[in-house]
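In the current project phase, work has continued on tokenised descriptions of protein folds. One protein thus recorded appears below exactly as we store it.

——
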Amino acid sequence: MTEIGIKLRKKSFEFALRIVKLARFLETDKKDWVLSRQILKSGTSIGANVRESRFAQSTADFVSKLTIARKEAEETEYWLELLTAAEMISEKQRISLEKDLNWIIATLVNSVKVSKRSLKTA
């Protein structure tokens, strides 16, 4: 596993942990189960797909797993924006989470591009 792969795996796990804590906060303090479940599903799915990609059966499978992770990251970004607009989380909370999320998204995009290039040359 590459250094960037190790960092992506670690960051996506740490992000998922932050999302679990956010969902718990939304459920207990805001009494919201619907939005907390939505962000919990998408926010934790990112790391799960990154983890699955480690044992991909092929480069195409690897690209597929990381593409799914990216889609889940984009969905998570939507839920963060909605929660902020609904005043369920603060702008400061959103910015902090999005900082990590943006790094994850950029890394996923780059990893997919590099992997797709290797598919074309193979």
